[in-house]
């Protein structure tokens, strides 16, 4: 829940910098993470029992939303597009896993895609902090 609130704050800071796509991504997923945190805080487990189909439908809605954001990010920097593409793949795989009656193989594959997406997102943050938004320039080592 705390991570969702922090992500929501990051979205507001991006909005202040006129970075609309990043503001939308951070704010929306901050709200999603905070809401999911509240469900877990109250003792709910959306990944178990008959509610896994309802949780799968929620993930399907977020997959469609992320697909729209992915299309909108095509004209931005490459790292954001790759990150959103991997997160989109993660959500689609996990959605299928949830709707396939809690298919563990798909959920594990989706989890690994999510880890790779997280690593790429950290790399994108490094590029944003250094001011380099091109993937090729971000991989290049600085001259001594």
Model description:
The protein is mostly helical. The protein contains six helices and no strands. The protein is globular. The mean pLDDT is 86.
How many individual helices? 6
Percentage of residues assigned to helices: over 70%
Mean of residue pLDDT values: 86
* Residue runs with pLDDT of under 50 for 5 or more positions: none
Which structural class fits the helix and strand makeup?
mainly alpha
Radius of gyration: 16 Å
- Give the number of DSSP strands: 0
Beta-strand content: under 5%
In short:
With 144 residues, the protein is mostly helical. The protein has 6 helices and no strands.
Q: Topology, pairings included?
A:
Layout: H1 2-16, H2 20-41, H3 52-72, H4 78-99, H5 104-130, H6 135-139
Helix pairs in contact: 1-2, 3-4, 4-5
What descriptive keywords fit this protein?
single chain; 144 residues; mainly alpha; globular
